[in-house]
Design brief:
By secondary structure, the chain is α/β, with parallel strands linked by helices. The chain has a five-stranded mixed β-sheet with strand order 3-2-1-4-5, sandwiched between helices. A five-stranded mixed β-sheet has the order 8-7-6-9-10, sandwiched between helices. Helix 9 links the parallel strand 9 and strand 10.
């Protein structure tokens, strides 16, 4: 089955085409597929001067660029619309203007070519990517860390998710960006903080490890960000080494917080699924590209006889492949969406949340 995927939830305009092999129709184990095309246009330069994503600018850029991105994805795959089995698009969560652009484009293609429409939860796209790239079986844990989300999810099956933990304030990527901004580093801040941290002393500043040791799996990052600001104000004006040391101390605190939360999650997973000998944690989202965080996760999971599965970095950030693949997974179960499916700025990926969107069955008219 061949599916076109469209992603426009934030500041990447993306389209991709994947082929899913129907070797596991019940989707109880692994799945196999291939990427036929993957086109992503980043808007980073458009937003850099503002220090963050401006929703109106992002939406207008999607309007200007999406048709060309879809055309390029189709050409790279060497396919026509009549060769597709379905078209998938992010229907939320995200910036509503951008989500509308992608979803309406998918609806138009589906209606014009009598194709099934699959409205995909953006978070489900991240949750299922490792089934394409690493043949990850169900169930597994997902750590999603990006500019808009910080969650630990139990992924039982397509459409079956339990949110174990989430941030109670800032998302992790947001904390990185805000910390970079207050230290005078350019946008996007995550890579800049990581780069500066490589030359810094992670023990110079005693920053808080929010939520560490507490019950549950939730995160909190706003207090850590505020602590960085206070330390910076104490020693202002900052030298280049001061900035590096603050970044290193900030990143070290993040790693300890994540290690604590993930360690508890893996232990709980083992208690609930004692027959799974080698539990897997999938990591996704833009922050998953941070090498220090990846190294910490590998060490934490190794100590608990668990495995870290990280899709290629280009598929950890927002892309059309993950939406196309999630669409194909749902289409294989006969789940499609009506053409009046709404765009949703907020759409939690909790247990049974996805089932509500599957109003049609495979083979039904879009």
């Amino acid at each position: 089955m061949i599916v076109l995927g469209i992603e426009t939830s934030c500041d990447e305009t993306a389209a991709a085409i994947i082929r899913r092999f129907d070797n596991d129709p019940q989707q109880t184990g692994t799945a196999q597929g291939e990427i036929l095309s993957n086109i992503v246009l980043s808007q980073i330069e458009d937003h850099a001067i503002y220090g963050g994503v401006v929703p109106e600018i992002a939406a207008r850029a999607h309007v200007d660029m999406l048709d060309g991105i879809i055309k390029k994805a189709m050409q790279e795959a060497g396919l026509g619309f009549d060769q597709l089995d379905g078209v998938a698009a992010t229907a939320g969560p995200g910036l509503i203007g951008g989500v509308l652009v992608g979803l309406m484009s998918a609806k138009a293609i589906a209606a014009a070519h009598n194709l099934p429409l699959i409205a995909v939860n953006h978070l489900e796209g991240h949750a299922l990517t490792a089934r394409l790239t690493n043949n990850a079986p169900f169930p597994h844990l997902l750590l999603l860390v990006s500019g808009g989300h910080s969650q630990i999810l139990l992924v039982r099956n397509v459409g079956e998710y339990e949110r174990w933990g989430t941030t109670i304030d800032d998302a992790l990527g947001e904390a990185f960006d805000k910390t970079a901004k207050l230290l005078g580093l350019p946008y996007p801040g995550g890579p800049e903080v990581e780069k500066a941290a490589a030359s810094g002393d992670p023990k110079r500043f005693a920053l808080p490890r929010s939520m560490k040791g507490r019950d549950g799996f939730d995160f909190s990052f706003s207090g850590l960000k505020s602590a960085v600001r206070r330390e910076a104000e104490k020693i202002a004006p900052l030298s280049e080494q001061d900035v590096c040391d603050l970044c290193a101390s900030f990143q070290a605190a993040i790693c300890e917080i994540l290690a604590d939360r993930i360690g508890k999650a893996i232990s709980t997973f083992k208690e609930r699924f004692p027959d799974i000998a080698n539990p897997q944690l999938i990591v996704a989202g833009g922050v998953a590209a941070n090498k220090a965080i990846r190294a910490m996760l590998e060490q934490t999971l190794s100590e608990q006889q668990a495995e870290l599965v990280a899709p290629p970095i280009r598929l950890c950030t927002d892309n059309g492949v993950m939406i196309a693949w999630a669409g194909a997974e749902r289409l294989a179960l006969g789940l499609t969406s009506p053409l009046n499916t709404p765009a949703r700025p907020r759409w939690p990926l909790d247990k049974n949340a996805q089932a509500k969107i599957g109003a049609g069955r495979k083979g039904a008219k879009a």
